[in-house]
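Wait, mind explaining this?

_____
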Amino acid sequence: MKIQLNLVKSILAVAGVATLSAVSAAPASAFSFSNIASDNTSGDAYVNSFRFDVLDNGSNNVLFNIFNDNKDESAADIFIAAVHLDTGSNTNLLSNFGIINGRGVNFTEGATPLPQTNNLATPWSTDFAAGITGTRNGVQTGEVLGLSFTGNYNNVVSALNNGTLRLGMHVRGIGSKGDSDVFVSTGTSNTEATPEPLTMLAAAAAVGFGAKFKKQRAQAQKAE
């Protein structure tokens, strides 16, 4: 009876966490990068090592999470040194620029001009930029940089998809000579529901409680 009562309590606890996590799941769109056609091809092989998500944080707030997913051990030193956004004619699309540094990352507002953009078919004009404060503070493998804005999520995703909003980044530390290259958002997305940490907590709790009560039940059966 005691085991059954504990099981009911635990199921309710897991259900509570799951309810909170369901609320925390936010609409998101995942984007990739493309190369800029130019004589600089040092980073072309690594373009798929980077991606970014745009999340709807509610209250007219959007969050850009920019990831370095590099898995090539021979290019372990590759890192994102600066990010730039060009809003084109969408002058009111984004405002209230904020930087959220992930662990091991330290960016501040502003950066040197984005190289290679003179090779783009559509002229580039940086409206928002963030760059590293030191060579070791870039977005290394497994790290993430967040950029927050006031803006309408649907409008932002639409502008990224049609190319009127572009995100460019300067990647450094490529090869033995520490070369650099520039990548720009592709303009295509994959819309998904992105779970927040509470979702993962709910899953972990469910697994943990399941294992715990399987053990207790086995012990009770053995004692009978």
